[in-house]
Amino acid sequence: MAKIKTIYICQSCGGTSAKWQGQCPSCQAWNTLEEGLPEVSSNTRFQGLAQSLPRQKLSAISAEDLPRLSTSVEEFDRVLGGVVLLGGDPGIGKSTLLLQALAEMSASGMNALYSSGEESAAQIALRAKRIALDAHQLEVLAEIQLEKLLSIMDTVKPQVLVVDSIQTLYSEVLSSAPGSVAQVRECAAQLTRAAKSSGICVLMVGHVTKDGHLAGPRVLEHIVDTVLYFEGDTHSSFRLVRSIKNRFGAVNELGVFAMTEKGLRGVANPSAIFLSQHAEMVPGACVLVTQEGSRPLLVEIQALVDTAHIPNPRRLAVWA
Ligand SMILES: Nc1ncnc2c1ncn2[C@@H]1O[C@H](COP(=O)(O)OP(=O)(O)OP(=O)(O)O)[C@@H](O)[C@H]1O
Ligand SMILES: [Mg+2]
């Protein structure tokens, strides 16, 4: 397959450069060059097709509510929809959560496929064994080439596919390395296109950068239907899955989990974990009600004040 060489496009003036530079050679702006694909289409090329393109009246399109698939992980269902991008810090439990959800789905008779570019099939099997998953029916694949994955989607036609992670996938046609902006964008776009045309539900894992954003281009978040962030404190076993964007449901929904030896367990009554049970009122502690997505949560705020021994007093906030 012929490779397409990526170029660098100035986000300010649209000028291009064959290699990355700090300054745009056209408008002299700094740090505006981003990797992209060269423009190949011309406006006149498709003019003859205008009449043959199938257009439909909106009223003529069947708009039945498609049945929603359930992962049997109630706290996860709460935040799901369509083509999903799950982002989160390293080691937070992304692979664990998706493996658990897929195992439940395959056990209930669905055709589910877990494709990992980060771990070998043996590592995935080890995790499934550690958390005692019933994953006999679940199919696992260690693949990083997009074209092969697309052909598997076409032939195997799984109902649900997990891609762990989008940064490890690469397309044969692009010359840049896996994880580069062009590769991530192209792989996500192609996967989404294949998912929409075949009705496969695709869940992609995305890495998060040091400053907490999903690594790769921001357009990634525009391409997919649902963006989820998996958050948590390394000192606490509680994990939150927050929906940032959802084309099929309420945004800012929250799923609450606890990481245990046997994997992630949904917390059915999150208010209970945010409250320390006092028999009587204690100074410095106050309970408030906050609305997270479609459910109210009770959260306890505790304040502890002490004399500062440094010139500038500090305010520190932690959550548990
Ligand atoms: N034996 C164990 N007992 C309890 N918890 C464990 C055990 N082994 C791993 N874990 C938990 O599982 C987490 C790793 O989960 P997982 O591999 O799903 O994360 P991830 O988000 O996919 O990470 P990465 O970004 O590296 O792919 C660890 O951080 C730890 O909390
Ligand atoms: Mg992982």
Topology overview:
Elements (H helix, E strand, L loop, with lengths): L6 E4 L5 E2 L15 E4 L37 H4 L6 E5 L5 H14 L4 E5 L4 H10 L8 E3 L4 H11 L3 E5 L16 H18 L2 E7 L11 H5 L2 E7 L5 E9 L7 E7 L2 E4 L3 H5 L10 E8 L2 E8 L18
Parallel strand pairs: 4-8, 4-9, 5-6, 5-7, 7-8
Antiparallel strand pairs: 1-2, 1-3, 9-10, 10-11, 11-12, 13-14
This protein binds adenosine-5'-triphosphate and magnesium ion.
- Determine and state the CATH class of the largest domain: Alpha Beta
CATH topology assignment of the largest domain: Rossmann fold
CATH superfamily (homologous) name of the largest domain: P-loop containing nucleotide triphosphate hydrolases
Average pLDDT taken over every residue: 84
Contiguous helical run count: 7
H and E order: EEEHEHEHEHEHEHEEEEHEE
Helix content: 10-25%
Largest sheet: 9 strands, mixed
Written account of the structure:
By secondary structure, this protein is α/β, with parallel strands linked by helices. It has 3 domains: 1-39; 74-266, 3-Layer(aba) Sandwich (Rossmann fold), CATH 3.40.50; 269-320, no CATH class. 21% of the residues lie in helices and 24% in strands. It contains 7 helices and 14 strands. The chain has helices spanning 74-77, 94-107, 121-130, 146-156, 181-198, 219-223, 270-274; strands spanning 7-10, 16-17, 33-36, 84-88, 112-116, 139-141, 160-164, 201-207, 226-232, 238-246, 254-260, 263-266, 285-292, 295-302. The chain has a 9-stranded mixed β-sheet, sandwiched between helices. The radius of gyration is 23 Å and the shape is globular. The mean pLDDT is 84. The chain binds adenosine-5'-triphosphate and magnesium ion. Magnesium ion binds next to helix 2. Residues 88, 90-96, 118, 130, 259, 261 line the site of adenosine-5'-triphosphate.
